[in-house]
Structure formats: C-alpha cells, structure tokens
Amino acid sequence: MSLWLLDTDHVSLLLERHPQISRQVANLGAEVVISIVTVQELFNGWVVRINGTQKVEDVVRLYGKLNRTVALFGRVRVLDFDEKAGETFQRLLKENPTLS
User: pTM (2 decimals)?
Assistant: First the structure.
C-alpha cells in the first residue's frame, strides 16, 4: 500500500474544500497521511492569525476554522517525526546548507 503524504499547502487547500484536492483525497481514503510537521505548521499559522485580529467576528470565524483543522487531524493518520526522519533531515541539511 502506498501512502500519499499531503504537505501543508495541500492540507490548507483541503480545509478550504478545493474541488480537485478534495476529490483526490476522497478517492485515496486511508492512503492519505500528513506529518506532525504539517500539524505544527498549521497550528503556528492559526496562532498568528487569531492573535493578530481585533474584531470579535474574525476571532469567531478563525476559531471555527481552527476547529475544522483539529477535526481533520482526528480523521487522517499523522506520521511522527521519528529517528529515521531526523536522520534524513540532518542529511538533507548537510547536503543543502542553504536550507538551514
């Protein structure tokens, strides 16, 4: 079984109900996964947006979107950043010094 790892941009599109992304994810079902890195990036994005707004209606809307994001995490397998991922990350940083 192949896994389809969605990056943060794809998950954001999925949460916005992008038709092509939504259709592909529905077709793949349990083969779709996200990484814990994507979870962290999405949470960071919501924290910045929620903390940066002053209007109550915007806060309500943004918390609603954060709630949809959290619900997605309960439906999709989240891959851990384990030792092997850490080693790969370290190797990539050595091979591509401009990434760090």
Answer: 0.85
The CATH code of the domain that includes 39 is: 3.40.50.1010
φ, ψ of residue 96 to 5 degrees: the values are -135, 75
pLDDT digits (tens, 9 = 90+) for 25-36: 999 988 999 999
Torsion-angle region of 39 (φ positive above 0: left; ψ -120 to 50: alpha; else: beta):
alpha
Task: Tell me the two tokens of residue 75.
Answer: 């439906």
Q: What is the DSSP letter of 76?
A: S
The DSSP bridge partners found for residue 56 are none
Angle between helical axes of 8-15 and 36-51 (0-180°, round to 10): 60
CB 29 within 8 A of CB 2: no
